[in-house]
Design brief:
Layout (H helix, E strand, L loop, with lengths): L3 H11 L24 H18 L4 E5 L1 H10 L7 E5 L4 E2 L2 E2 L12 E6 L7 H10 L4 E6 L10 H15 L1 H7 L1
Parallel strand pairs: 1-2, 2-5, 5-6
Antiparallel strand pairs: 3-4
């Protein structure tokens, strides 16, 4: 919740006047519970969506980083409250865990994927293959020279969000003007 990627993504979204909710999954940081290999974490995301719906009654642009991106894409693709998805540092393989994204072929929501071209958890060739299978509309931004955490390249990641969002959600551009 407090890492630099999440912080910069939140700032990019907030620059459009969008409310932003950052949270830790169960068992992370000071949150209660323990890691549940994505199952319980999808419940965490649904609880966050419920809270946002109750608090703001607005559509949600889901944005997730790494494990949060993988879990959020799977949770939010079928959720009607979420019209758009941003995935940062989309992981394909981390330690013994392999991530699959076959459901993206049926996810017709606008999707932005931003990853470093030196992301240790997503080789570019594999990421391009995943992206090619995802349904339109979609955009892939590979940040040159960036690792998984976009070290030294966070402004480029943030700019990708700022440029993409009004293209698919023009109403947010009015709030920024």
């Amino acid at each position: 919740m407090h890492n630099k990627v999440v912080y910069h993504a939140a700032k990019a979204l907030n620059s459009f006047g969008l409310p932003v909710l950052r949270f830790n999954f169960r068992g992370t940081g000071l949150s209660e519970g323990s890691h549940d290999d994505g199952r319980g974490e999808r419940d965490d995301i649904r609880a966050a969506l419920d809270w946002l719906q109750n608090e703001y009654s607005r559509p949600v642009i889901f944005t997730g980083f790494s494990f949060g991106a993988a879990t959020g894409l799977k949770t939010c693709c079928p959720d009607p409250r979420v019209p758009g998805l941003i995935s940062l540092g989309t992981p394909l393989a981390v330690q013994e865990r392999l991530y699959t994204y076959s459901y993206l072929s049926n996810c017709s929501k606008p999707k932005l994927m931003v990853s470093g071209d030196h992301d240790q958890f997503a080789p570019v060739a594999n990421l391009r293959e995943l992206f090619s299978l995802a349904a339109e509309p979609k955009q892939l931004v590979l940040v040159e020279g960036a690792d998984h955490f976009f070290e030294g390249k966070l402004p480029i990641m943030r700019d990708a969000i700022v440029e993409w969002l009004p293209r698919y959600f023009p109403a947010v551009a009015d709030a920024r003007a």
